[in-house]
Amino acid sequence: MIAQFRHPxxxxxxxxxxxxxRINVLRFMLLLLALSVTIGPVHAQRxxxxxxxxxxxxIGAHPDDEGLVAPIFGPACVEHGNDCAIIILTNSxxxxxxxxxxxxxxLHARLIQWDLPDVLDVSLWGDRAALVARLASTIAAESPTRxxxxxxxxxxxxxxxxxxxxxxxLDAVATLGANAPAVVLVETLIERDAQSxxxxxxxxxxxxxxxxxxxxxxYLVDDAAIHESQFDxxxxxxxxxxxxxxxxxxxxxxxxxxxxxxxxx
Length: 265
Hints:
Elements: H1 8-46, E1 55-60, H2 70-79, E2 83-90, H3 94-106, E3 110-116, H4 128-142, E4 146-150, H5 160-174, E5 182-186, E6 188-192, E7 198-203, E8 209-212, H6 217-226, H7 233-240, E9 248-253
Parallel strand pairs: 1-2, 1-4, 2-3, 4-5
Antiparallel strand pairs: 5-9, 6-7, 8-9
Helix pairs in contact: 2-6, 4-5, 6-7
């Protein structure tokens, strides 16, 4: 085979071209580096932190209990479109069940209606361990980020079913371990007159935080009006007339020490 002869000048040109290629590759790499330095911060500025979803759950004993947190759920669920649900443990009549449906719809919340008897003796609710397991399963399925419920010490009105609803909630959440959501206890005390009409509200403990409900008080009044089997026109008028300084929802995280707190006989 006859080897192809290459003129020295051609070899030089090849070397020059190879050098040009290396220079161009180097320039390209430097350009990429410069672009990464320039683009990096701009790209970083466009990254926005993603807010975790807000999922609220109220757990109460009766239809109309959610009225106590309606000034919280109204803005959160209706105005800001957060995911909200309401669990009612008892179901005493078709009328009250229908009112519960309308109240939940007004708050843009899902209603989970249980069928426990509406009684003062909560031992009639049945096996307590089974109730705790059932409630824990329901909470896990809803996966709320925050639960509101009654404080078992007073239940806002000393009603045994209110207090047990709070106890069941705390016991159920305690079984969820690392997946347990935050629980906020409602520390609002209901004040009644001699005719048992609600005339005002106050805090059960000095440790409670007051959520200003001045601009969302109408959600409580509207909720009560939906439960017309429980609240007549005179009672609605009294709720609407509650003093501005009492238009508050008092709350306390369940993991915070309450200090002195109102109890029931």
